[in-house]
Amino acid sequence: MEKFVIKGGRCLNGEVVISGAKNAAVGIIPAVILSDEPCILENVPDISDVSISLRILHEMGAKVQTLSRDTFRIDASGINNYCVPYESARQMRASYYFLGALLGKFNKARVSMPGGCPLGDRPIDQHLKAFSALGARCNLDHGMIDVSADNLKGSQIYLDVVSVGATMNAMLAAVKAKGLSVIENAAKEPHIVDLANFLNSMGADIMGAGTDVIKIRGVGYLRGTTYSVIPDQIEAGTFMVAAAATGGDVLIKNVIPKHLESISNKLEKIGVNVEEFDDSVRVWVDGPLVKTNIKTMPHPGFPTDMQPQMATLLTLAEGTSIITEGVWEQRFRYVDELRRMGADISVDGKVAVVEGTGCLQGAPVKACDLRAGAALIIAGLAASGVTEVEDIHHIERGYDNLDKKLQALGGDIIKKHFPGSSVRKAI
Ligand code: UD1
Asked: Which of 109, 185, 251, 272 sits at a 20 to 30 Å CA gap from 260?
């Protein structure tokens, strides 16, 4: 078993380069299936969700060539089946994007029900609603999702809830459907715009991505392209919070500051300094941190994927902060772990009340999901003493070399292999 072992109490200082966005990459990689020519993807993050996506393509018959650490050439023209291997697909929630991409290409797809972070009920009814609107039949059968159509036809797709996954899947399925599709109540996250830009660079006709109405006119052929994935908004936000929590001074490079606005605004309210440049932000602390209230919402609201990291920072601030989770049913499972480190947080349903205690103590803790894991690492960096974070596979799903990037900023964090079980040591 591997753990991150963190000796807390060191300020983070220096520069860090942000990798490509996980949530864009896991949509763009399956989207390559829609092209009949090779594509080159640049700025692809080195994370396990990407490795699994590339492995699925390879297992299905695509040629995947590594050109450099973050650049891949993918030729999906050899794919001639529409069934995603069960073992790979169930390891990753975003494997559902293969449904939309395969349906768009072959009018058929079969993928296992997705895995991923346990954040409460994670239905895919809106994905299936979008496929049905385009003329597909959808069946759930022994843990597999089957979708098929004689012909996909452009149509109006109204999403009952704002869903990132359903919006991206609807785009993937509609891009080659005959006629005009209109996605209403679409999600507006930066990765939705990135997927649209990628598809348009292959010759698709998608307008309105980034607003709540996306119009897609189906095209018959998608050519090859070279495309660079956008920087990861949540990785950048995580480093911003880590810099603040350790009282550090960090220049975070390769970011789109506009994507970070909701995070920067909250940090400034807490008393953190944020200076924006063209493609970087500097974050530093020179005074006390103070309470604030946060409600997570779909973009451009405060991102739910930054909620655990921000809660950790607020335990270090003066006063009582209230956090309301507006996207997921169960996104406070990490609170029990933070409490082991001395945090004073009470949770009632979707609301957490954080009493700032000003300090945390190192403890053995477990990452229960990806962003919870990031929050515990931030807590460990800010705490006195040693923190051991278990179940780090969750963290490695979505952070590219987090330990090495933190080390370069002066953080005392190492990945250690421990033989044997995951029984907690007494403190
Ligand atoms: C994506 C992100 C995830 C982020 C989330 C919200 C990826 C790979 N993951 O997840 O990190 O936390 O957006 O920003 O991009 N819902 C339904 N029916 C559906 C689909 C969703 O009711 O068919 C509900 C969900 O239960 C949830 C809300 O809609 O309450 C938002 O979910 P959604 O935006 O779909 O999240 P994901 O795309 O799974």
From this structure: 185
